[in-house]
Amino acid sequence: MSGQGGAIVDWCTCTFEFDPESFGGLVNALSFTVGLPLQAVESAALRGFLDGRRIHAFVDGEFVHLATLCWGGESQRGRAMLDVPGAACGMVDWPAMRDFLESLPESRLTRVDVAVDLHDGQWTVDDAMQWVRAGDFNCSGRNPSTRIDGDWLPVLDGGKSREGRTLYVGKARNGKGLRVYEKGRQLGDQASEWNRFEVQFGNRDRVLPFEMLTDPSRFFVGAYPALERVLAAAGERIATISNTAAITIGRILTWVKASAGKWLHVLASEVDPSELVEAVRVSAVPRRVQSSAVGAGLLPEAVRRSFEEWKSWHGNG
After folding, report:
1. Could you tell me which of 24, 35, 148, 160 has the fewest CB atoms within 10 Å of its CB?
2. What is the spatial distance between Cα 22 and Cα 92, in angstroms, rounded to a whole number?
3. Do the beta carbons of residue 245 and residue 293 sit within 8 Å?
4. Which run of H or E residues covers position 131?
């Protein structure tokens, strides 16, 4: 996984013709796109399919979610769907994934999200709002539709958003839509300056080329004229993965203290703390921890960093 800055693939959905008898071979081939052994477990099917399997990658003794495979159902006409969510995209070797998907019979990309992260707020939601007013998202002589969501009132009163704001430009359901949002604050860090610009492409009235998976920066810039300046300030994928994990862990520490802190105080007064932790912990990675953080080996560093930052903010009270 490269640490080079640029646009990243942050979601990928592909459909293809599928014979359930070939399931084992497909999973084996998919394993080469991450260089890890995979496990498939039965799960609820998505989007009108009849059968579903969650595909997990085995990393350092833990299984983490990589993708969901669905097939079956009369309306699907023998096609299947492979869905790789954003939390797992950092694990994927995208040139290998492109080769794999293109090798599948009658394969078609139906959704690809490409994103740029600005960890230090080099460009923000407010900048994007100004670009809308200036017509910088104009395509083919027309301004796209816009809407806003999130914690806007504090900003209108001269303060700062706490839970994060989102600006939507265009409509993803029509084939192309941009989301600009305060990623760090939406993850739970109220002081974060991390903003994300994310374009969601769909295959309505268009064909999504497989080049999107190996050259996402070109398609990111091509989506709207204003995005070229954003790409120049792009953060690194490795920083995105690490920061996502650290913010999530900080929220969990706050939740543990609020929900169980008093009971831990009572128990630790009579039981050795290390023995207590060993007795109550479950040896598994929770779904809320990003799969990419485990796959990149960044989880231990993120845990240590998040705990030290959390202690400095919350103390021992």
Report:
1. 24
2. 22
3. yes
4. helix 125-134
What is the spatial distance between Cα 225 and Cα 50, in angstroms, rounded to a whole number? 41
Q: Which residues contact 191 (CB under 8 A, 6 or more apart)?
A: none
Is the model's pTM score more than 0.70? yes
Best CA proximity match to 69, nearest among 32, 92, 43:
43
Check if the beta carbon of residue 249 is closer than 8 Å to that of residue 303: yes
Q: In the sheet that 108-118 helps form, which strands lie side by side, from edge to edge?
A: 38-43, 51-59, 62-71, 79-84, 8-17, 108-118, 195-202, 176-181, 165-171, 146-150
Residue with tokens 């640029």: 6
pLDDT by residue for the chain (317 residues), tens only, comes to: 444 568 999 999 999 999 999 999 999 999 999 999 999 999 999 888 999 999 999 987 888 999 999 999 888 889 999 999 999 999 999 999 999 999 999 999 999 999 999 999 999 999 999 999 999 998 777 888 999 999 999 888 888 888 899 999 998 888 899 999 999 999 888 889 999 999 999 998 889 999 999 999 999 999 998 899 999 888 666 677 777 777 777 778 887 888 888 888 888 888 888 888 888 887 766 666 666 666 667 678 878 877 887 777 776 55
Amino acid identity of 314? H
- Residue of 189, 260, 199, 192 lying closest to 226 (CA atoms): 199
Polymer length of the chain: 317
- Considering the domain 113-235 in this protein, what is its CATH number? 3.30.310
Q: Where are the domains of the chain?
A: 19-104, 113-235, 238-314
